[in-house]
Amino acid sequence: MSAKGLADLVRQEIIAHLKAAREVAAAVEAAGRDFTTEERATVEHHTTQAKALQPKLDQHLKAAAEADALQQQLADLTGGIGLLPNSGLATPDGGSSRGKTWGRAVVAACSDGIRFKGITPSGSVVVAVPAPAVAPAGRPVPSLRNLLPSEDGQGRFSYFRQITRTNNATVVAPGAKKPTSIYETVLIDDRARVVAHLTEPIPRQDLMDAPLLEQWVSSELLYGLEVALEAEILTGNGTGEHLTGLNNISGVQVQTFATNVITTTRKAVTRLENYGYHGTGWIMSPSSWEAVELAATSTGSLLVTEAGQQAPIESSTRRLWGAPVVTSVACPANTAFYADFSTMALMLTEQARIDWSEALYSPDRFGTGDGGTLFEANQIVGRCEMRAGLKVTRPDAIVKVALA
Q1: pTM for the whole thing?
Q2: Please, which pLDDT band fits residue 71 given cuts at 50, 70 and 90?
């Protein structure tokens, strides 16, 4: 029996004891006399039993409330997409959850481990973007997002960007004038941009017949979104709806090519350290990383510098001069970025979101002049989008490195 049913039984038992005690008390009151010894014992027996049952009632009520809360949570999670698989209960469109209707497009997880956070009744799902984190020792850093911290942001945000830092601190004699250091900032007003894309219409039957197809489509949508966002962070030109990426931010340091890639990248490390920063990572294209790994002397000995020393490259963990290297196809050719990424942040206004709809209308869906919706064609389309902005507080903590 359910907790709610047990609570009802205990409640009825308590009511019965209280009713019996009340009947005896009412009879004594109507007679205008005192309780007899037997009547007093009867009343005390029933009231004692009622009190003893109260904790049991509270326990069942608590269990029933928890069960109701769990049911509501499941209802919220499955709202708009039917109930749990194999429940045999009807979905909102009148089908069976065993039939796997379009709602299954809101899948429980992606193959690469990205988790869904919540489902809304409209058939959309908010997914968790991989959080920036330091890669465990011995493993490569998988993406730019793992180097770049994230912050929750609003549609519009402001921050101070440092453009000048002149430290004049020195020893000062007693009573002498202290020097003044110069720290100049400028207020940056920015806003989040929408990064998004759609799928082509997908036959509803295909999703019913191939459950893994939905998971694959969701994974592809998320991957495509991350690729587009990474391109904006690196090369966005700041016009229209584009972010101002690292390649176009004014005030960054520049390291020209010097002899070879090993020497050039080492000079970039020194340049950043001269400004008081410690680089936390490199970004370069796959072909540029190949050139770094294949750096060779005139004798063709791989990974050996001109001085005969082992080059500072860790291929298995993909590190250069002790800092992780992230490869990106969006990075300009023969260019690398070496930076202290703690001085910047990705401002997330809205996490990546996948929505599914059958309501898309086309004026020529069934032929020229014969319009209709996806619902009439028994098809659905997916949309994946997020809103994000880029905050760069210290451009001089970025070195743009020429690798050729």
Answers
A1: 0.64
A2: low
